[in-house]
Request: fold
Amino acid sequence: MSNMILLGTRKGTVIFDRSNSSWNPRPIAHAGIPVCYAARDPRNGTLWASLDHGHWGPKLSRSRDGGTTWEDVLSLKYPEGARYIVKYLPGPDFDPEAPVGQPEYKDATVFKIWNLAFGTAGQPGRLYAGTIPGGLFVSEDDGDSWALNRPLWNHESRGGDLFAGEATSENRWSGTPASIDYGVFEPGIHSIVIDPRDPLHMHVAVSSAGVLETTDGGQSWTGRNRGMLNDYMPNPESEWGHDPHCVARCPGQPTHLWQQNHCGVFYSDDGAMTWKKVSLPDAGVHFGFPIAVDAQDGRTAWVVPARADMERMAIGGGLFVARTTDGGQSWQSFRSGLPQENAYDIVLRHGLDVCGDSLCFGSTTGNVYLSEDRGETWRCLGYHFPPVYSVRFG
Amino acid sequence: MPTVEVTRHLYRFFPALENRTIRVPAGSVADVLRAVDELAPGFSDYVLDEHGALRRHVNISLNDTVVIDRKKLSDRVPEDATLYIFQALSGG
Reply:
């Protein structure tokens, strides 16, 4: 059972401490600064917050005393020569039939540190950070220094090794709408899921490209998008161009992975080699951002559905959580303790977490809800928080 | 020597710059920022990106003239100038 919940919010980091059955928020940390992700490293208890300064660039902040004090960590930076091929949001003059022009290159700069992941117990000090514009960074010294993972950056699906020269293949990675706030349309890595059995084995999810897997510690990467359907694209079964909103792995059954995107909920029980669409639109389980998987049973997952895509609000003004225990063949909806009238909450991709029988989610409306019975009943931990970007048990 | 005026928002992260007059040797804007970074290590990361270009929502002016070269920061800072570092009002 966890005794801590961390929220990354529009106005700072909120930490709840559990005292018997009550959860009490501390005064906000990083007050006034947008925090797009906050989490606790289970290996050493260090707390991390990814600060999304509007003016001063993205920064990581670290606390080694349980959140009493925080320190800036040296910014992670793209190395000299890191370039990518620019994509633009299609405008009104976009012609899909037009011949592909010469690639336009851009020097990479970190716009957002979207996600952090911690190495396995056998890798003390190993951290991962996913960024916009689509670079995975790795630290071996608990965040004191960071290096770009070049094989993923140089992947053939992005045009090849642009450190070495001109593109040798087409860039198949597109931008994420989450990058538009920065005045660009670039891809972003928001999910980094490590196989607890094998630290060399991990998946990352890229918006908008898809899921990639490495089995050799990041020296090589392979797309894992078979079975994904992209029903708004000319070719729904295209290998690339997918927009996974969030990918989660079952720690106890690591071949079980889940994701949700614009086109449904997808489940894989073979380590992402193939994905199956398991959403039930008639039951409201289709569109949404976050997904959580049980720690032991890979067939059990939770989503917080929303009205796709044009509204992005709770369906019919009533907020609910849906759970499957059979790999998505059936879903149960739970509404007890959640508002069923005039609710316009949307839960973003990192805004739901599970720990044992407990689940917690926070919405952009600033409401935070907790369940301690596997999502069946809920209570509110507060209605007036800033818009919530991430929720993680500590 | 030029004077550097820093938006008070940055004092939160660099208290060493508060309640003092910042004077550094003349040179280019890049030279001046390097000198401020020596007074407050890490300062450059707040106003420049990894290529040394001014961040999108940061402005620098020499007296009341906004600097022209935002990429290489080559504008000259005269001996008697005041260099202002402040947030752009473009959002952020």
Q: What stands out?
A: The radius of gyration of chain A is 20 Å.
